[in-house]
Each structure stands twice: as structure tokens, then as C-alpha cells.
Amino acid sequence: LLFLCLQKLSEKTLSLWSLINSSKSKYTNPFYTKELNRALYPVTSMRHLELWVNYYIRWNPRIRQQQPNPVEQRYMELLALRDDYMKRLEELQITSNPKLSNSSSSSSSSSSSSQMMSHVQTHF
């Protein structure tokens, strides 16, 4: 039974090379020139050497912790931006309402400010 399955597998499986060879012009480099005596010599000096960290060290947990997650990093940036906008909004509300800028009633100022701030909603 296993032999029959393997035989049918080879009959029904298409080769990737058949697809590539059917349209070679699509997959060949138009700038390639055939030079028999030419060899490519890589630059091996240390200053030109780069380690592809995301690929080669992706399984090392210490290195992975050092690299910030792009989503988490963006989230932190957005939180900081939200805080900046909230501070700016509070400053604008204080400057637009002279009662809030009175320094003698600082406790009422913070409560009035927080009441005004409660109307602002964010998605965070």
C-alpha cells in the first residue's frame, strides 16, 4: 500500500523546475554575462562584515530581549505621544480659562482640571 502511494505521489507531483524552465526569461538575470575567467572575490575585511542579527541570533533569548519588539516600541511611542497631547490639552484649557490659572486655589484648580480632562477619551 505504501509503495502504491509513493508511486502515485511521483506521478501526481509537479516539479518546480518545470514551472521555472517554462518561462526562463522571467527568472534569468538580464545583466548576467558569461565570463569564464572571472571570479567573485568577497570583501572580507572586518569593517565590511555585518552579522544578520535578526536571523543568526534569533534563538538566543539574551539577544532577543535586547532587541525591542517593533509593535511594543510603537505602542510605547504612542503612549508617550498621548501623554504629551494630554499635557498640551491641559495647558490649553488652563490658558483659555482664567479661573483655572489662579495659583491660590491650587486644589480646586486640579479638581477642575481633572473634571475638564474627563471628557477626553483615548483608545489606550
UniProtKB/TrEMBL annotation:
Swiss-Prot/TrEMBL keywords: Cytoplasm, Membrane
Gene Ontology molecular function terms on file: phosphatidylinositol-3,5-bisphosphate 3-phosphatase activity; phosphatidylinositol-3-phosphate phosphatase activity
Myotubularin phosphatase domain boundaries: 1-56
Bilayer topology annotation: Peripheral membrane protein
GO terms under cellular component: cytoplasm; membrane
InterPro entries according to UniProt: Myotubularin, Myotubularin-like_Pase_dom, Prot-tyrosine_phosphatase-like
Gene Ontology terms describing biological process: mitochondrion distribution; muscle cell cellular homeostasis; negative regulation of autophagosome assembly; phosphatidylinositol dephosphorylation
Low complexity bias spans: 101-114
Similarity comment: Belongs to the protein-tyrosine phosphatase family. Non-receptor class myotubularin subfamily.
Protein name: Myotubularin phosphatase domain-containing protein
Provenance organism: Micrurus spixii (Amazon coral snake)
